[in-house]
Amino acid sequence: MSTVRLHKVKRPGGVYWFGFEQVARDADGTWLRAPIGSPWHAPHEDGTSTMPVVVLLATGRPWAAWWVGDPAGRRLEIDVCLPPSTTDDGWRYVDLELDPVWHENDGRVEIEDEDEYEESWRGGFMSADDAKLARVVAEGCAQLLRRDTEPWLRRGWELLDQA
């Protein structure tokens, strides 16, 4: 296992990073895991995670999947983004704000952060092409979560349970 950072660029919010362990690489992408206590940094503060997280990334794919082990309600969040790329110390992507989310407690799927998407789009921090990509990918990922047929969806929960 190797230690990596995931840099998440939010426009206009700045660059956030999260410390992860790279636990696997397969046909679905690269799997990262952050157990409780993993470091993170935001433009306004630093801290450590209070819950385990697993992330699946792949170059060329405009989303990153986050399995979140929140004791108040586990969920799978899809960060719609410009396709992730590798860096010297891990990964980087630009967040396009819309987040399809599946909630384990009731099976509900919703697209969150519409307000952040509008702020980024209307504020000129997102191009028209990026805004269109965000909308199309968010809707497609929401449908994927509703179908629940992809094997990697279950793999993420398994890795989260090991964190």
UniProtKB/TrEMBL annotation:
This is DUF402 domain-containing protein. Coiled coil: none annotated. Residues 44-147 form the DUF402 domain. It comes from the Bacteria.
